[in-house]
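User: Please predict the structure of the protein below. I'd like the answer in structure-token form so I can feed it into my own downstream comparison script.

Assistant: Understood. Taking the following sequence of 111 residues as input:
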Amino acid sequence: MVPSPQPIRIMEEDTIRTLFNKGTIVIASGRGGVPVVIEDDGTLSGVEGVIDKDRSSVLLAQIVSVDILLILTDVDNVYTNYNRPNQKPLFHLSFEEAKKLAEEGILHKAV
């Protein structure tokens, strides 16, 4: 396993922003993207890792200044302690509650 680095930049952001602002439907940031580093000479080199697709989506939404970001998933519910023996479904959850659970380390995918 390799760590999931925090996305800090989308290399194609200028092109994506231009297309988005012209009303084009842009499909980008699929599967989170390919992690790269910028070498001393300015070239890009791929590195091992998997960029978190949800965090990439949030970064892309910030770049194009959207009002609403929807992330669709096939997970049937939001859970505390997801994929652990003590996981529990949350049927109603406010932003404030999600933030508190994330700070406590109980909810791991709060955005």
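That's the full token string. The longest strand covers residues 36-38.
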